[in-house]
Amino acid sequence: MAKELRGKAVADALTEKLIPRAAALAEKGNAPKLAILRVGARDDDLSYERGALKRCASIGIEVESIVLDADCTQDELMAAIDHINSDESIHGCLMFRPLPKTLDEAAACAALDPAKDVDCITEGSLYGVFANRPVGFAPCTAEAVIELLDFYGYDLTGAKVTVVGRSLVIGKPVSMMLQAKNATVTMCHTRTKDLASECAKAEILVVAAGHIGTATAASVAPGQVVIDVGINWDEKNNKLAGDVLYDEVAPIVDAITPVPGGVGSVTTAILAKHVIEAAERRA
Fold first, then answer.
1. How far is it between the farthest Cα atoms of the chain?
2. 170 falls within a domain
3. Same-domain pairing of 99 and 166
4. Which of 36, 42, 60, 67 has the highest local Cβ count within 10 Å?
C-alpha cells in the first residue's frame, strides 16, 4: 500500500514559521488581514473557506468574509472588489473561482489591486510564475504542490513529471513551477489521446483536471508518486473526493496524497504565507 503524503505535517511546519511573523506585524500596528470574496455557496468553496478560516485563526491573521448571492450583479461584485482595494487594513484577497457564468470573471480579476492578489488571479502575478520572476504571488494550490514535494524530500531535478490539467488556476502554473525546479514536465488534459498511458510513464503524477476518476488503476505504475489536487463533491457517496480513484491507485503506487487531507491542507498555509508576505511588503 502506498505511503500517504498527508498535508498536515507540511502545513504545521509552515504555520510554526508564520506565527512569529504575524505577531511581529501586529506589534507594529500592521496586523495581517485577508478578505475572502465568495459568490454563492459551492460545497468545494465552503470546504476550502472553513480550512482557510481555521488556519488564519491559528496564525493570527484576521479574516473578513464577503459573501454575495449567486445571482448577484456585476456591479455588486465590482463594488466588493473596490471595497477590498480601498480598505488599507486588508493585505490580501482570496476570490473563489470559477464565478457564475453570468459574471465577467476576467474583469473582476483585472480589477483587484495586484498588491493584494495573494492567489495569482491578476496578469502580473501570472507573468511572475511563467517568467520565474519574483512578481506577485503564485497560485496557492500550485505552490502547495511544490511545498509538499519538497517537504517529503522528492528531488525534482530531472524528474519526469506528468501534469493532468491545463487551467490557469493549477495546471499551467504548476507546470511552470515544476520546470523552475528543473523537472521534465509533460502536460496532459482530459482530451489527451491515451491519457492513461501518458500518466503511467511519469515518475511523479500531478492530477488537477477537476473530474472524479481522471486517474484510475490503468493510469499508474509501481514506484510512482501521485499528487491528487482535485477537490470534488461526490454526490453519489456524499463526500469530498479527488480526481484520482484512491482505492484503485493506492495499492499500486509508491506514495499518494489523500483527499481530503493532502494538498488542500497545505494550500491554506500557503495562502496565509502570502497574506503575511503582502503585509510585510507594505510595511
1. 56
2. yes
3. no
4. 36
pTM above 0.90, yes or no: yes
| Separation CA 8–CA 265 (nearest Å) | 6
Query: Is 271 within the bounds of a domain?
Result: no
Residue 206: all three cell numbers together: 500531478
> Per the domain annotation, does 134 fall within a domain?
no
- The torsion region of residue 120 among left (phi > 0), alpha (psi -120 to 50) and beta comes to left
DSSP per-residue string spanning 52-108: HHHHHHHHT-EEEEEEE-TT--HHHHHHHHHHHHH-TT--EEEE-SSPPTTS-HHHH
CA–CA gap between residue 150 and residue 156 (Å, rounded): 8
Tell me the sheet residues that pair with 205: 162, 226
| pLDDT one-digit tens code per residue, 82-119 | 999 999 999 999 999 999 999 999 999 999 999 999 99
Closest CA to 166 of 203, 214, 118: 214
* Domain of residue 75, residue span: 25-116
Strands 204-207, 225-228: parallel, antiparallel or unpaired by DSSP? parallel
Cell of 163: 501534469
β strands within the chain, DSSP E = 3-4, 33-39, 62-68, 92-95, 160-164, 184-188, 204-207, 225-228, 232-234, 239-241, 255-256
DSSP 218: G
Are 214 and 241 spatial neighbours (Cβ–Cβ below 8 Å)?
no
| Residue 124 is assigned to a structural domain of this protein | no
Q: Are 8 and 263 in contact (CB under 8 A)?
A: no
